[in-house]
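Lab notebook, bench 4. The sequencing result for the construct came back, and we need a structural model before the next group meeting so we can plan mutations. Quick request posted to the team channel:

Model the 3D structure of this chain.
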Amino acid sequence: MSIETTVQDSVQEDTQLITAEEAAKLIEEGALLIDVRSEGGRASTGAVPGAVVVNREHVEEDFNPESAHRLAQVSGTDQKIVVFCGSVNGSRPVAQKLEVLGYANAVHVDGGFPALRDAGVPTTGPTAPPAETTQARTASVTSER
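Done. Here's the predicted structure in token form:
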């Protein structure tokens, strides 16, 4: 059975979901912070210094204890891990995959990056203009031609 099937089959209460304030405390205590947002998402909203950027499609190879490609920042399955995205829709599946891989202390943040920022977690950026502004500029340039 694949990890995807195991995650999809788990229809239980989301016991891994924590508040941004709880996440901030874990981060302060040294938890590994995982950002699963796209590059565009980070550029348009900002980033958390020290967060490890992980592609949601590579979670198994990045965290599997037996993987030759496991992230260097991962010290073991007992490590505290805080996953965030732009919302729980992106972070929940990653936290669930980590749990299936044996990471009992993997959690994800209710409200994602915006909630972490609002809870006082240091952030940087954004580094790119918001998508709406970019689209409006593109439309304006196109109509002028």
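The CA atoms of residues 77 and 103 lie 4 Å apart.
Will bring this to the meeting.
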